[in-house]
Specification:
By secondary structure, the protein is an alpha/beta fold. Helix content is 36%, strand content 16%. The protein has a single domain, classed as Zn peptidases (Aminopeptidase). α6 links the parallel β7 and β8. The radius of gyration is 18 Å and the shape is globular. The mean pLDDT is 92.
Length: 318
């Protein structure tokens, strides 16, 4: 197990449609979405705000032309391409959770990722609808742990994987889960390494991390290649876990990629490393003004480039 860096990955020839799509992603639009979402919105503790944020996201995605469903008892928001083949539709998914810790605004956790997801959906709908025909979006609810719920967490994503997918007729060949991607620090010593990792992370928290399990190693390679090609100034580090390592490193399974790993579906987590960098993690100070929107825009472009490249390579039907 070792870290791999995008800067050491061969650069590819950029695809014009992808370049055009990435140009639509702006710091201003990302910040506007973060401002809308970053209110206390825990499913149980802040039920009205949670419902309102979910309705806001569903409306945004529906206005872009996606087929939107409020899925399951936990109100996941599922947005699929308007036109797809009826015979075994094949999809790449971008996912993020929209709830927050009880009483907390959750700008980085996880309004930053929700803003990136919306920006990707907008870019594909407006600039590259053909490229986006094999790409869908899921905004999960109830990701956050609730202390009095005996460790309940990842509730929405588990329901999606265990109940929605088997009945949907959809074949998912890749999932990109975005979990806190808006905080960057250029201060030496701002980055810590989670306990148990057999290496040390760089001491400066200015990179985005991508994590895949053994079944998702190719997604790590794809993410590093896309970052190197389309966002070369974004420090991007990838980690491929060997078989069974996720059971030994539970700190790497705390977000909505974990149910997909358990189901054998290739999934990648994109992260700014949460509390190992961001001092506002799960605090009232996790507010929109603490985010670095240049960093968030760069990460969003890397995600979109990776997803567009992967969907095109798979020739996902529509």
């Amino acid at each position: 197990m070792r870290l791999e860096a995008a800067k050491d990955t061969p650069k590819q020839a950029p695809v014009p449609a992808t370049v055009m799509a990435l140009r639509t992603i702006t710091e201003a639009s990302l910040q506007a979405t973060v401002q809308e979402v970053a209110v206390p919105r825990h499913f149980l503790a802040d039920p009205e705000a949670n419902r309102q944020v979910g309705e806001f996201l569903a409306k945004r995605l529906k206005a872009l032309g996606y087929r939107v469903t409020v899925q399951g008892p936990h109100r996941n928001i599922v947005a699929l391409p308007a036109a797809r083949a009826q015979d075994k539709p094949l999809l790449t998914l971008i996912g993020a959770h929209y709830d927050s810790v009880a009483g907390m605004p959750g700008a980085d956790d996880n309004a930053s990722a929700v803003a990136a997801l919306i920006a990707c959906a907008e870019a594909l709908a407006k600039i590259a609808p053909a490229a986006g025909a094999g790409i869908g979006f899921v905004v999960f609810n109830r990701e956050e742990f609730q202390a009095d719920q005996r460790g309940a967490g990842l509730v929405g994503s588990r329901d999606f994987v265990e109940h929605y997918l088997p009945a949907s007729g959809i074949t998912v060949h890749a999932v990109h889960v975005l979990e806190m991607i808006g905080y960057r620090s250029a201060v030496p010593g701002s980055q810590r390494t989670p306990a148990g990792l057999p290496f040390s992370l760089p001491g400066t928290g200015d990179f985005v991390g991508v994590i895949g399990n053994a079944a998702s190693a190719s997604l790590v390679d794809a993410a590093l290649g896309a970052a190197r090609t389309y966002v070369p100034d974004l420090p991007t580090l990838g980690l491929k876990l060997p078989p069974g390592a996720e059971a030994l490193l539970p700190v790497l399974t705390r977000s909505d990629h974990a149910p997909f790993w358990k189901a054998g579906i290739p999934a990648l987590q994109w992260t700014d490393t949460a509390e190992f960098r961001n001092p506002h993690y799960h605090r009232p100070s996790d507010t929109p003004e603490t985010l670095d929107y240049s960093f968030l825009a760069a990460v969003t472009r890397a995600v979109l480039a990776c997803v567009m490249t992967g969907a095109a390579a798979k020739n996902a039907p529509v």
